[in-house]
Amino acid sequence: DDVYISNSSQLGPDIRQFTLLDGKPPFLLLRGAQRSMTFLFKPVSEGRTTARFGLTDTVSKKQYVITLTGEGISNRAINDPTSFRGIAAPTALIPRAGRFTVGTVNGLGWIAGYSPTDNLMILTGGALPIPFNNQVSTAYSIGAKYNVSISDKLTAAAGYQYAKSIYDKDATSQRESDIGMHIPYGILTYGDEDSRVSLGAGYVLKHHITIDQPEGFTANAAVLTFSGDYRIGDSWKLCGETYIFQELGVVPLIATARYMGASYALDFGLAFVGIETITGKAPSFPLLPVVAAFWRF
Question: What is the reported pTM?
């Protein structure tokens, strides 16, 4: 007899990973005729699974059942979803177009980014102006970086950030410190998901205004950054980073272990700040905790 299929329904047990794409009801199937239906299996978990689709005949009220099976096999080694950064410093890599990212290092400052294209990333960040002990410090920045792929493993990027830093005490009518900075920079990143190194160089054009010098003065400085990571497990990496900044006073050496999920990465480690420069002095206890968390949407 002819069969008129009016609708379909997912009967389970798996109703998440299978979808009817083509050949959907309603349709009339004449006796002896054939009809193709296309189903999509899009696994979201590992392992073998079964789904059933029910097709209802309006005339006879019968239900015909199609049984489907599939097996999800995932790539166990998770790609780093936050490869656009070392630990805090940027790399030459950029998330795909339409991606939004946000993160923090030690909770002191926040970083956010958006990729309008595959090769352009807009970056912003700063520290919240939270009053403490009758004083307040805050900072913010905005800029962008653009990259080009030189080879399968080598990527170059150029960027610019404008940054502002303010320190103000309630006891005075003027701000103690107001710093504006223009920061052009370039980065080279070499490697893949198993190991990667990045070398960056920039120049900070800084104008500093204080109570004692309201007219302001320049304090320009060059900066070099080096970062890298090495995979030690399906979801784990070891990461390292250092900076050479003329006015920082110390050369920090930072090492973390990174745990990666599909859309986030968490770093836990230490920073050694006992290497002094000519203009600086290291703290009496040179080890500082480093905790970083970044998400990609």
Answer: 0.72
Cis peptide, bond prior to residue 252, ω within 30 of zero: no
pLDDT, tens digit, 9 for 90 and up, residues 17-35: 888 888 888 888 888 888 8
For residues 296 and 144, give the distance between their C-alpha atoms in angstroms, rounded to a whole number.
Answer: 17
Output the CA torsion sign for 22, 26, 30, 32: positive
Instruction: Identify whether the C-beta of residue 162 lies closer than 8 Å to the C-beta of residue 148.
Output: no
Contact (CB, 8 A) for 108 and 115? no
Q: Token digits for 220? A: 């320009």
Q: Is 135:170 a contact under the CB 8 Å cutoff?
A: yes
C-alpha distances out from residue 64 to 17, 110, 296, Å: 21, 56, 43
Contacts of 233 (CB under 8 A, 6+ apart): none
Task: Describe the chain by its helix, strand, coil percentages, rounded to 5.
Answer: 0, 60, 40
| Rounded-to-integer distance, Cα 258 and Cα 289, Å | 14
